Amino acid sequence: xxxxxxxxxxxxxxxxxxxxxxxxxxxxxxxxxxxxxxxxxxxxxxxxxxxxxxxxxxxxxxxxxxxxxxxxxxxxxxxxxxxxxxxxxxxxxxxxxxxxxxxxxxxxxxxxxxxxxxxxxxxxxxxxxxxxxxxxxxxxxxxxxxxxxxxxxxxxxxxxxxxxxxxxxxxxxxxxxxxxxxxxxxxxxx
Length: 190
Description:
Blueprint: H1 6-49, H2 52-55, H3 71-93, H4 102-124, H5 128-150, H6 154-159, H7 161-180
C-alpha cells in the first residue's frame, strides 16, 4: 500500500491547485479574447464612420420598418458577444487551432472580415451596391459557419441564430436602401 506523509500530501494538493488555477486563468483569457474580438472590428467601423450617420445616412430614403438608430449599438453588442463566445466554444471543443479547426474557424474568420467590411462600403464610401454584395456574401458565410459548427457544438450554433436573424433584416434593409436611393453613387456625398 502506498502512503504519503502529511507534507507530501500538502505539496501534492498545493501543486494541483496551482495547476488548476493557471489553467483557469488561461481558459478565462481565451474566453475573453474570443468574445472581445468581434467587438474590435465593430468598434473601429463605428469610430471611423460615425460622422457619416448624421450627415449622410439620415438623408437616405429608408423603409418604415427600419429600426431606430439607438437599437443598432445595443443589437451589435449582444450579437458580437454571442458570436465571439460561440467561436470560443468551437475553438475549445476542437482543441485549439489545428487541422480540424481550419474550416469551422476559417469560415468564422471570413464572415467576421465581411462583417467588418460592410460599414466602410456603406458609410465610408457610400457604395450601396458593394455593401449589398458584401452582406449577401456575409449571409452565405454565416450559414456555412453555422453548418460547419453544428456537429461540433450545438450551443455555439444556436448562439449564432440571433445574428443570422439580424443579418436577414439588415440584408432586406440594405436591399431597400439600395433600391430606394438610386441617385447615390459610390464616393458621392450629398
